Amino acid sequence: MSLPITVIIGPPRSGTTILGQVLDRHPRISTWIEPYYIWDHFFRQATDDELKAEDATDKVRRWIRKEFTYYWKAFGVDWIVDKSPRNCLKLPFVSKVFPEARFIFILRDGRDTILSILRQWERKGQIFGETGASRHWQEKLYIYQRRLKRRKLWRFKMKSILFELGPPKNWIKKEFLNHIRWSGRFGWGPRFRGWQDIIDTASPLEFSAYQWIHCAKGIMNNIDFLPADSRIILKYEDFIIDPQRSIENILQFMGMEFPKGFMDMVPEIWPGNKNKWRQGFSVRELKIIGPIIGKTLIEYGYENDEAWYREV
To answer: Structure pTM?
Structure first.
């Protein structure tokens, strides 16, 4: 059975969440926010988040499709929208599981994205890192409660909890999901292939840049393998400047009508949320991330050359 599924693909902190929230306000669409416990059900012990088409075996495909079918039928909508930033690293896998899927690729200036990724590392590190383990229990509780609240059905609330906890033998050792994902370290975001080789030597800024570049390349290296009529590209900067036009284009791509008064129902979208990197990064920091992301920024159309960090 074909499933009406649209997949948002974009690096973390690139606007995937706000786009998913906006589409979720449509009466005939339901957005599933980061069901990693479904996508990674068979890959909990994997050393990174990259998956290839051959990883989507018949057993894996059947299980994932069964869960998405349950979600779709439970809400009785015309479209499911999936929002999972890690899928940047597993696009061939996602396409193999859902060959009928449509894809919305959201691109954002990598410098703004990296700045936001870095701030997430810092904020989450204060709460979940070793120094914040006992001092920030209220913030941790709030984050866990918010995560559960985003799970719209109790079936998936329980699946996410069980996926995080793992088998009972791990509980005594406190080897929960984040501990296993990052080999005993605190960690956040997508794990690109080879992350273990640099995480202990790279600065948080460098590692954030590597997370972005691997997600960006995961998109660039695989997008052309998808049928042209199954994908649409949205620039975050265009979205925040003229959200109505962007949403109209996306809904047209999905074959959906733009409801009357729809913009009155969507979350606030701040048009000034761009170019923060200009004040957020020092010259020294620009010179650190420039060699990592410079060429990809050009390919993404955000720069014509690398003068932005070479000549500052």
So the answer is: 0.92
